[in-house]
Amino acid sequence: MGQTIQILKTSIVDKVAMFDTDRSLTGQDGHSYATLAEAEEAETFPAQLAARLFAGDSAVDNVYLFSNVISVARLRGWDEEGQAIAEATIRDFFVVYEENKG
Length: 102
Known about the structure:
The structure is a single chain. The protein is an alpha+beta fold. The protein has a single domain (about 5-95), classed as Scaffold protein Nfu/NifU, N-terminal domain (Ribosomal Protein S8, Chain: A, domain 1). The chain has helices at about 35-40, 45-55, 80-90, and strands at about 5-15, 15-20, 30-35, 60-65, 70-75. A 5-stranded antiparallel beta sheet has the order 1-2-5-4-3. α2 packs antiparallel against α3 (about 80-90). It is globular and about 30 Å long. The model has no long low-confidence stretch (mean pLDDT about 95).
């Protein structure tokens, strides 16, 4: 149940990774979260995704969502493991059952 989100392109510039996806997650307003606690305060889909990104990787420093792009800043920069965790978190955000994940 639930569809995966396709990541069409990932761009990394210094400590920020931008994940361009196949679906819009926000309206015309961007959503920015600086901490897990801040993301957990809201009940919106952008806040829930940000909370999962913070919870999945302790190095995540900031999450910004605008339309179909998710920008994630990471304290130590990006490595393969950090990128894989972020991509899996985004890809499986709407998936309900484990057997349907990525």
